[in-house]
Specification:
Elements: H1 2-21, H2 48-56, H3 64-72, H4 80-91, H5 96-111, H6 115-129, H7 139-142, H8 146-162, H9 168-189, H10 195-211
């Protein structure tokens, strides 16, 4: 699956370069504007966080479990329990506003003894707490990458049974079948996110849009 993603990304980047240069690789063209050497600005953002924001218009959620591991690496093992308990108070808050407030308090308190931990909390605050802006029933599916990791393990388990694939198409068929099975299960048997919660989220978005002030440009007027 990684190879497929890498190949697709390479094709997109090659097409982007062809457009900027005005010619394909080894192609003689009067429209050529430059050559394939050196660095040039591209519209394609290969960083996952930036690409998700630009292409999908979505936010980035840092895995809460992995953040805790990273945070505790700045603290002596004898203090891990105390620090973990202080940070977990953030995740017990009912809404984003209170979670952000408790996060700032915890960061400032821990910074006095472990400056690197305080700086780490400053850097990841937005990404670690993004899930708190969603309905409560959705948060368990958003704050951790465990659902995604389970899906990846299932794909790997099914691929290990085959062992050696004759060609790339066979990999696509197998992985596609596994993903379709998981999609059906999330839609019919064990719904990944409840419809009621999605309706609540959509209602909140609509209210926010209605409350936004109307900006009329001079040209429109």
């Amino acid at each position: 699956m990684r190879t497929i993603a890498e190949n697709a990304l390479q094709l997109i980047m090659e097409a982007d370069v062809d457009r900027l240069i005005g010619a394909g690789r080894h192609e003689r063209s009067g429209d050529r504007a430059t050559w394939r050497n050196g660095y040039r600005d591209r519209s394609l953002d290969t960083r996952a966080k930036g690409a998700i924001t630009r292409v999908m218009g979505a936010t980035w959620q840092r895995c809460r479990v992995h953040f805790m591991r990273n945070a505790l690496s700045y603290v002596p093992k004898g203090q891990n329990t105390m620090v973990a308990a202080a940070i977990r108070q953030v995740f017990l808050q009912p809404d984003q506003k209170s979670a952000t407030q408790v996060w700032r308090q915890a960061a400032d308190q821990l910074r006095t003894r472990w400056p690197k931990l305080g700086n780490c909390m400053d850097e990841v605050e937005t990404d670690a707490l993004d899930y708190t802006g969603f309905p409560t029933q959705h948060r368990t599916k958003l704050y951790s990458t465990n659902p995604l990791e389970r899906l990846n393990k299932e794909v790997k388990r099914r691929a290990d049974v085959v062992g050696i694939f004759p060609n790339e198409d066979s990999i696509v068929r197998l992985v596609g079948a596994v993903l379709l099975e998981q999609n059906d299960e999330w839609q019919l048997q064990h719904r990944y996110m409840q419809i009621e919660g999605m309706a609540e989220l959509n209602q909140t978005i609509m209210i926010e849009k209605e409350n936004q002030p109307l900006h009329i440009t001079a040209k429109a007027a």
